[in-house]
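Fig. S4 source data, part A: sequence.
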Amino acid sequence: MRYCRLAYSILAFVLLICIIVQVYLAGVALFGNSELWKYHRSFVPMFGYITLILFILGIIGKLNRKMIWGSLGLFVLISFQYITALHIASALHPVLSLALFWGSLVLVRGSYPFLMKRK
Protein backbone atom coordinates (compact mmCIF):
# COMPACT_ATOMS: atom_id res chain seq x y z
CA MET A 1 0.00 0.00 0.00
CA ARG A 2 2.88 2.36 0.77
CA TYR A 3 4.28 1.87 -2.75
CA CYS A 4 0.91 2.74 -4.25
CA ARG A 5 0.84 5.93 -2.22
CA LEU A 6 4.37 6.80 -3.28
CA ALA A 7 3.53 6.11 -6.92
CA TYR A 8 0.38 8.22 -6.58
CA SER A 9 2.34 11.14 -5.18
CA ILE A 10 5.01 10.93 -7.87
CA LEU A 11 2.49 10.60 -10.71
CA ALA A 12 0.41 13.49 -9.35
CA PHE A 13 3.56 15.64 -9.43
CA VAL A 14 4.36 14.44 -12.96
CA LEU A 15 0.82 15.36 -14.03
CA LEU A 16 1.23 18.84 -12.57
CA ILE A 17 4.49 19.33 -14.46
CA CYS A 18 2.91 18.04 -17.68
CA ILE A 19 0.05 20.52 -17.37
CA ILE A 20 2.51 23.37 -16.84
CA VAL A 21 4.48 22.26 -19.91
CA GLN A 22 1.26 22.01 -21.93
CA VAL A 23 0.26 25.57 -21.04
CA TYR A 24 3.79 26.74 -21.87
CA LEU A 25 3.59 25.06 -25.27
CA ALA A 26 0.30 26.82 -25.97
CA GLY A 27 1.79 30.15 -25.00
CA VAL A 28 4.86 29.66 -27.17
CA ALA A 29 2.67 28.66 -30.11
CA LEU A 30 0.30 31.58 -29.58
CA PHE A 31 2.84 34.32 -29.01
CA GLY A 32 5.82 32.88 -30.84
CA ASN A 33 5.93 30.39 -33.64
CA SER A 34 2.47 29.17 -34.66
CA GLU A 35 3.98 26.03 -36.18
CA LEU A 36 4.54 24.79 -32.62
CA TRP A 37 0.83 24.05 -32.16
CA LYS A 38 1.63 20.51 -33.27
CA TYR A 39 3.61 20.00 -30.05
CA HIS A 40 0.71 21.32 -27.97
CA ARG A 41 -1.69 18.92 -29.70
CA SER A 42 0.58 15.89 -29.58
CA PHE A 43 1.72 16.23 -25.96
CA VAL A 44 -1.68 15.58 -24.29
CA PRO A 45 -1.99 11.91 -25.32
CA MET A 46 1.35 11.29 -23.61
CA PHE A 47 0.04 12.23 -20.16
CA GLY A 48 -3.76 12.21 -20.35
CA TYR A 49 -4.13 8.72 -18.95
CA ILE A 50 -2.04 9.42 -15.86
CA THR A 51 -5.29 10.44 -14.20
CA LEU A 52 -6.78 6.97 -14.68
CA ILE A 53 -3.64 5.42 -13.21
CA LEU A 54 -3.99 7.81 -10.26
CA PHE A 55 -7.58 6.68 -9.81
CA ILE A 56 -6.53 3.02 -9.65
CA LEU A 57 -3.57 3.75 -7.36
CA GLY A 58 -5.85 5.78 -5.09
CA ILE A 59 -8.20 2.83 -4.68
CA ILE A 60 -5.38 0.33 -4.08
CA GLY A 61 -3.52 2.73 -1.77
CA LYS A 62 -6.71 3.38 0.22
CA LEU A 63 -6.53 7.14 -0.18
CA ASN A 64 -9.51 9.28 0.77
CA ARG A 65 -12.43 9.88 -1.56
CA LYS A 66 -11.23 13.38 -2.42
CA MET A 67 -8.02 11.99 -3.87
CA ILE A 68 -9.65 9.06 -5.65
CA TRP A 69 -12.56 10.93 -7.23
CA GLY A 70 -10.43 14.03 -7.79
CA SER A 71 -8.15 12.06 -10.09
CA LEU A 72 -11.15 10.77 -12.02
CA GLY A 73 -12.50 14.32 -12.18
CA LEU A 74 -9.26 15.44 -13.80
CA PHE A 75 -9.71 12.72 -16.43
CA VAL A 76 -13.15 14.15 -17.20
CA LEU A 77 -11.68 17.66 -17.45
CA ILE A 78 -9.01 16.44 -19.86
CA SER A 79 -11.74 14.82 -21.93
CA PHE A 80 -13.63 18.13 -22.00
CA GLN A 81 -10.44 19.82 -23.17
CA TYR A 82 -10.63 17.80 -26.39
CA ILE A 83 -14.21 18.95 -26.93
CA THR A 84 -13.53 22.61 -26.22
CA ALA A 85 -10.53 22.68 -28.52
CA LEU A 86 -12.69 21.84 -31.51
CA HIS A 87 -16.09 23.47 -31.05
CA ILE A 88 -17.86 26.69 -30.24
CA ALA A 89 -17.02 26.32 -26.55
CA SER A 90 -13.36 26.99 -27.33
CA ALA A 91 -13.33 29.96 -24.95
CA LEU A 92 -13.59 27.42 -22.12
CA HIS A 93 -10.36 25.71 -23.20
CA PRO A 94 -7.98 28.01 -21.28
CA VAL A 95 -10.38 28.17 -18.33
CA LEU A 96 -10.39 24.38 -18.07
CA SER A 97 -6.60 24.40 -18.15
CA LEU A 98 -6.68 26.56 -15.02
CA ALA A 99 -9.02 24.02 -13.42
CA LEU A 100 -6.67 21.20 -14.43
CA PHE A 101 -3.72 23.03 -12.90
CA TRP A 102 -5.59 23.70 -9.69
CA GLY A 103 -6.93 20.14 -9.47
CA SER A 104 -3.54 18.56 -10.05
CA LEU A 105 -1.99 20.87 -7.45
CA VAL A 106 -4.67 19.75 -4.96
CA LEU A 107 -3.76 16.11 -5.67
CA VAL A 108 -0.05 16.77 -5.17
CA ARG A 109 -0.58 18.63 -1.91
CA GLY A 110 -3.17 16.13 -0.70
CA SER A 111 -1.03 13.09 -1.40
CA TYR A 112 1.83 14.20 0.82
CA PRO A 113 0.20 13.35 4.21
CA PHE A 114 -0.57 9.84 2.96
CA LEU A 115 3.13 9.26 2.39
CA MET A 116 3.77 9.85 6.07
CA LYS A 117 1.34 7.12 7.18
CA ARG A 118 3.02 3.83 7.99
CA LYS A 119 0.00 1.58 7.44
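Fig. S4 source data, part B ends here. The helical segments are 2-31, 37-47, 50-60, 65-86, 92-116.
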